[in-house]
Write a structure and sequence with these properties.
The complex is a heterodimer of chains A (230) and B (253).
Chain A: E1 4-15, E2 18-29, E3 33-37, H1 44-51, E4 58-63, E5 69-72, H2 86-93, H3 97-106, H4 123-135, E6 141-145, H5 159-170, E7 173-177, H6 181-187, E8 190-195, E9 197-202, H7 204-207, H8 210-229
Parallel strand pairs in A: 3-7, 3-8, 5-6, 6-7
Antiparallel strand pairs in A: 1-2, 1-4, 8-9
Helix pairs in contact in A: 2-4
Chain B: H1 3-27, H2 34-51, H3 55-77, H4 81-99, H5 105-110, H6 118-147, H7 149-154, H8 159-200, H9 204-229, H10 233-251
Classes of the chains: A alpha/beta (230), B mainly alpha (253).
């Protein structure tokens, strides 16, 4: 099970002339749950988008051949402007209605839910529908930007429990951006810290030491204080 | 063929397709961009009236030029789209009034359907059908792009290509609309039916269908009122469209 499905070497990404990611190298094995950790503006979302081929970069990004990616964005602020039902939204990804219904059931929704408007969903429901969206593409790996950690309407299964179950059922690999440290201990097996340049990576126990976290977030705190006083 | 019937056929087709396309522009939060673009038709209309060729034909290159300019300025300056469209659009209006004969100004501003010929109608209908089927084809992908470009790119959709086709279609519709309701009011054909439709729709299929229907009904009733009252058709169409919008507010929950 040591199959490497993504290899990143010396990755650098510039956004509007600013270097957001610099010389980043890491590997992802099939079945990994890799968490990307770092303060705001550290380039977490940028990293996900770069891996998906949305942004230009320097360095090497090597996906194993035939690997299918699924992207779950942080939020879709504009979707509320458009009257679109859940079914219509999911059909933009895959027109197979039977499959849409199957996946909807597997993430804990009834079929009649499909007629509901996307704009009317709670944030937990919305995130589940986005998960249904990526599952419709039969992905090998999910790239998930900041799942909400709150309890869902069903009150039983959080997003993380759902992801854990799906990972087992579908042998998924997951790349996750999050701020939630407790989630990392419980859920992920590899952590990648980002703060412009890579500070650390490894298993959560090795990595999430006080020193490392201070190094990761501490500078940001100082930076803000500095600004306040000026 | 009867002049009134010709106007009616041309009007219904343009109104319907503009309303349908309008729903796509609405979801791109671009309804207002149609406004400056429609004003950009004015120099073209002025030239067409001066030299006696087709108003839509005169308008089209100016709209295309406007789109290219706005795109170019945006890339160069990174200023907000609204500011740039405003600049391009007032420049267009100013230029047209430098050489637009004053007695033709009304035609340029509010259109004149009584001048429509059978040949115009045939060209109109063919173009409208072509646009309708193109919009229908790109509709799902455009909606996804409008929801999130990142999500669309993650689906390997060529966003630039679709945006280009879309803008080209907008330019054609704005040019066609210019003849019908004039350079000043073309936006109305695009913006109002879609806003009305948004008020009464709960799904994408309803939204696009009602956009088309309100477009057709507005032009149809507007032209009928023109026949009865003798007032200019362009403004009447827009007023009917606005009335539909006002009524739709009641149905919005």
């Amino acid at each position: 099970m040591e199959e490497i499905i993504l290899k990143v070497e010396n990755l650098s990404v510039e956004l509007d002339g600013k270097e957001v990611i610099k010389n980043l190298s890491f590997e992802v094995k099939r079945g990994d749950i890799l968490t990307i950790l770092g303060p705001n503006g550290a380039g977490k979302t940028t990293l996900l988008k770069t891996l998906l081929g949305i942004l230009p970069y320097k360095g090497k990004i090597e996906w194993k051949e035939g690997i299918k990616t699924g992207y779950v964005p942080q939020r879709l602020p504009f979707i509320k402007d458009i009257p679109i039902s859940i079914l219509e939204f999911l059909k933009l990804k895959n027109g197979d209605i039977k499959k849409i219904k199957e996946i909807l059931n597997s993430i804990g929704f009834e079929e009649d839910f499909l007629e509901k408007e996307m704009g009317e969903l709670s944030s937990g429901q919305f995130q589940r529908i986005l998960i249904a969206w990526v599952l419709l593409g039969d992905p090998d790996i999910l790239l998930f930007d900041e799942p909400t950690s709150g309890i869902d309407i069903l009150g039983k299964e959080t997003i993380y429990q759902l992801l854990e179950r799906l990972k087992k059922e579908k042998n998924l690999t997951i790349l996750l951006v999050t701020h939630d440290l407790s989630v990392i201990y419980k859920f992920s097996n590899y952590v990648l810290c980002l703060n412009k340049c890579p500070i650390c990576q490894g298993s959560p126990k090795e990595i999430l030491t006080k020193e490392a976290l201070q190094k990761l977030y501490g500078e940001e705190i100082k930076f803000y204080e500095h600004h306040k006083h000026e | 063929m009867d002049q009134f019937l010709l106007s009616l056929i041309a009007g219904i087709f343009i109104g319907g397709v503009a309303g349908y396309l309008g729903t796509l522009m609405f979801s791109k939060r671009m309804s207002l961009v149609a406004d400056p673009l429609s004003h950009l038709t004015l120099p073209g209309i002025a030239l067409a009236l001066l030299y006696g060729f087709d108003v839509s034909l005169g308008a089209f290159p100016f709209v295309i030029l406007g789109i290219i300019l706005i795109w170019f300025f945006e890339k160069k300056t990174k200023l907000p789209m609204e500011a740039l469209t405003a600049i391009v659009f007032v420049a267009g209006v100013a230029i047209s009034f430098l050489f637009l004969p004053i007695e033709e100004a009304e035609t340029a501003l509010v259109g004149d359907i009584t001048k429509i010929t059978l040949r115009d109608v045939i060209i109109n209908v063919v173009l409208c059908l072509l646009i309708f089927f193109t919009v229908k084809k790109i509709y799902p992908k455009m909606v996804l792009i409008n929801i999130s470009e990142d999500l669309a790119k993650a689906e390997k959709i060529n966003v630039e290509k679709y945006n280009f086709i879309y803008l080209l279609i907008v330019a054609i519709i704005v040019s066609l609309g210019a003849k019908m309701v004039g350079g000043l009011l073309t936006t109305a054909l695009i913006a109002i039916p879609s806003a009305t439709s948004r008020n009464v729709s709960k799904s994408l299929s309803q939204f696009s269908l009602f956009g088309l229907l309100f477009g057709v009904l507005s032009t149809l009733l507007g032209i009928l009122l023109f026949k009865i009252t003798g007032l200019p058709a362009g403004p009447l169409i827009v007023i009917v469209a606005t009335l539909f919008f006002l009524i739709s507010i009641i149905f919005k929950n």
